[in-house]
Design a protein that fits this description.
The chain is of the alpha+beta class and about 130 residues long. The protein has two domains: about 30-65, no CATH class; about 65-125, no CATH class. The chain has helices at about 1-20, 55-65, 120-125, and strands at about 70-75, 80-90, 90-95, 105-110. The protein has a two-stranded antiparallel ribbon. Strands 3-4 form a two-stranded antiparallel sheet. The longest helix is centred in the first third of the chain and has 21 residues, at about 1-20. It is globular. The N and C termini lie far apart (about 65 Å).
Amino acid sequence: MRFIIFRRCFAAAAPLLALVFLASAAHAQSRAETLRYITGASVNTLEPNVPGSTREAFALSMSTYDRLVSFGRKQLNGKWVFDLDTITGELAESYSVSPDGLKITLKLRPDAKFHDGSPVTADDVK
């Protein structure tokens, strides 16, 4: 009796099992698509604006995702420093400052996308 019940269950489940085994397998990223970041200190967050975030966390975040804007760079006494007078867009293609200097309006790049291909919207930034 047990054998007959097992046989009926297996016959009913066989199409589902075949579908599971024939479905395409998930593909792992190749080595070229893998970010490797080696540091002697800890990366304590992926949110660089959190108080107490380490320099390593900031450096990793800059290698991982785009910001709205960034400062330019310039050489000062033989060292590269941020140029606070030069703002360049990353996710924002342009920006404008209100006449009173209290509001900044950013225009997002139309081709800005998340890693999964979905578009970055103003609500995401907000």
